[in-house]
Amino acid sequence: MKKIQIAVLIISLSTALHAQTRVTENQLAVQQTVIKAFDALSNRDSVSLKLFCADDIALYEYGQVWNIDTLINKAIRLNTSADFNRTNTLDFISTTVNKNTAWTTYHLNSEIIKDGKHISIQWLETVVLVKEKKRWKIKVLHSSLIKRS
Questions:
Q1: SS3 category, 22
Q2: Are 56 and 66 in contact (CB under 8 A)?
Q3: Would the CA dihedral through 137, 140, 146, 149 be positive or negative?
Q4: Domain assignment present for 30
């Protein structure tokens, strides 16, 4: 009987601890901003992309510093493949909100079809966001390539 009570206690504690990792409304809003920015990239929609980025965004990609124009040029304008398709999966590790600043870290997996080729890319990324006119905007994105196949 004591073994059953201990098992119930362990299950109860693990459920209670899991409930404490719930995402707040502010954290969810931050995460949704990042997700929507990647959706805009997938849809090659520079107008929507700009809605989710601060005007002075800095992207640290492949050892380079990009601005919004660099991102649009490399990811949208130069990407004219008729069969292009990009599907993103974001696995958020942590998200912190402090007044009008937030930061989130996540694993990004992108499955890309372009010119008849399938590419799978994995990154670890951290994004800093600022709240402008009650909307979260990406201010800084730092990306570390994990695997490309």
A1: coil
A2: no
A3: positive
A4: yes
pLDDT tens column, 121-147:
999 999 999 999 999 999 999 999 999
Query: Residue 80 gets which letter from DSSP?
Result: -
- The CATH code of the domain that includes 124 is 3.10.450.50
- Residues 9 and 19: their CA atoms lie apart, in Å, by 15
Look at residue 106 and tell me if it is in a domain: yes
Find the radius of gyration of the CA atoms of the chain. Answer: 19
β-sheet bridge partners, residue 140 = 58, 128
pLDDT, tens digit only, all 149 positions of the chain: 444 444 443 444 444 444 447 999 999 999 999 999 999 999 999 999 999 999 999 999 989 999 999 999 999 988 888 999 999 999 999 999 999 999 999 999 999 999 999 999 999 999 999 999 999 999 999 999 999 99
- What's the number of domains the chain is made of? 1
Q: Where are the beta strands (DSSP E) in 1-149?
A: 53-61, 64-66, 85-98, 101-114, 117-132, 135-148
Report d(CA 64, CA 84) in Å as an integer: 25
d(CA 136, CA 98): 12
